[in-house]
Every structure is written in structure tokens, then in C-alpha cells.
Write a structure and sequence with these properties.
Rossmann fold; globular
Length: 228
């Protein structure tokens, strides 16, 4: 079984998220993708997100009908109110899997470029293979420059189309520890910017260009994002 965790705020989930999940599934032959809206984003404490329940509901609408995609409560609010860390979520998910299962983590390129600020980033990147979706023309050197201290990256050949493959290793580690891999998908065609999303939410552009119509309707009916 090949399983991927796709976490994020999903505030709101848009067509770019769906396109990335679909591309990752097709390119890496994934069996399951767990879309997990995060309750408390450690790097965005200054931003008050839409409620977790609303984001779960919108994710279900956005990804409905996507083969192999499930909405997960893995990053639901913690009883102690602490932030949700991806490294903890991956560790929890790994415990539920069989030893032979392959685990991946899906990220957009913009998110990956901040990986050095994440909790225990070097350990995180060694926990599983990462799938990073990038728009055509993305500079591969930016990905390598974003790697946290303690990791080295080596480019490997791959038969996967429009994909760059990096092997990640820790500088100082036991030789027996296997490397992890980063698959950079260079052909993510669905380009949705934060500006476009805000404009769509305010009715300045066609909301259905960036949002699933069911998500757009949910937003209107629940009066979300009126504060933007």
C-alpha cells in the first residue's frame, strides 16, 4: 500500500489542492491520500483560521469523487490545545501502517520553501518520502537551498516524466539509516494564488475558477470570510 499525508490549513480548499493531490496520485501510483486539515498551524499563530469543522466540511466537498482521497481527522484539535506538528502526524500515521507500506507526504512548492522553519525539519524529511508540486519553470535550486542544516541532497535519475528526484541523507548519521527521497513534480498546471482566492471570495472574479462550486456555495451559505 502506498499512502500519502496531505496536510495544510485548507482555508479554503481550492482547485490547486485538488490538482496537486491528483497529480501526486497519478505520478507516484498512490493507493490512498489522507487530506488532513490542521487544527492549529504552528507557523500561523497570528492568523485566526476558519473553524476546523468548517474546513473539514469544505475539504469533503472539494475532494468528493477524487479516487483514493480520504478526509482525515489526524490533525484535529489536540486536547491540550497545542499546535499540530507534521512530524507527530507522520509518526502517528506510521504506527497504523504495515511495515511494507510506503509512506509519503505531499506539499506545494511554496510550503516546502519554508520547511526550515518547521518543527525538527531534518528529522521530518527523513521520516518518509516527500512529493512536492511545483509550477512549470520552478527553479530546482530553490528546493535544495530550502533544505535544513544537517541534510545533503543528491540528484538521481528517474523514469518519471516531468519529475526531479533528490536523495536526502543526514550529514552525520549511522550508515545503516536509509535515505529519504524528494519527488519534485514540475508540471502542476493549476496555479491558484492567494490573491485570486481572496478576489473570488469577494465576488470580484468567477469563484468557480479557483473553487469547487460546492465549496463556493458552502462559503456563501455559512457567511465565511466576511472579515477579509
Amino acid at each position: 500500500m502506498r499512502i500519502a499525508l496531505f496536510g495544510g490549513t485548507f482555508d479554503p480548499p481550492h482547485r490547486g489542492h485538488v490538482a496537486l493531490a491528483r497529480l501526486a496520485s497519478e505520478r507516484l501510483s498512490l493507493d490512498r491520500i489522507l487530506v488532513a486539515p490542521v487544527a492549529v498551524q504552528p507557523l500561523k499563530h497570528e492568523i485566526t483560521p476558519t473553524s476546523f469543522d468548517d474546513r473539514i466540511a469544505m475539504a469533503r466537498l472539494a475532494f468528493a469523487g477524487e479516487l483514493g482521497v480520504e478526509i482525515s481527522l489526524l490533525d484535529a484539535p489536540r486536547p491540550d490545545g497545542r499546535s499540530n506538528y507534521t512530524i507527530d502526524s507522520l509518526a502517528s500515521l506510521r504506527q497504523r501502517l504495515k511495515p511494507a507500506d510506503a509512506l509519503f507526504c505531499i506539499l506545494g512548492a511554496d510550503s516546502f520553501l519554508t520547511i526550515g522553519n518547521w518543527h525538527r525539519p531534518a528529522d521530518l524529511l527523513m521520516m518518509c518520502d516527500f512529493i512536492v508540486g511545483a509550477r512549470p519553470g520552478f527553479d530546482l535550486t530553490r528546493t535544495q537551498a530550502a533544505l535544513p542544516k544537517g541534510l545533503t541532497a543528491k540528484s538521481l535519475p528517474t523514469d518519471l516524466p516531468n519529475t526531479q528526484l533528490l536523495e536526502l541523507r543526514k550529514h552525520e548519521t549511522e550508515a545503516a539509516q536509509p535515505p529519504s527521497h524528494l519527488y519534485l513534480l514540475m508540471d502542476l498546471a493549476e496555479d491558484v494564488s492567494a490573491t485570486e482566492i481572496r478576489a473570488a471570495l469577494h465576488g470580484h472574479t468567477g469563484a468557480t475558477r479557483v473553487l469547487n462550486p460546492r465549496v463556493a456555495r458552502y462559503i456563501r451559505e455559512h457567511h465565511l470570510y466576511a472579515h477579509l
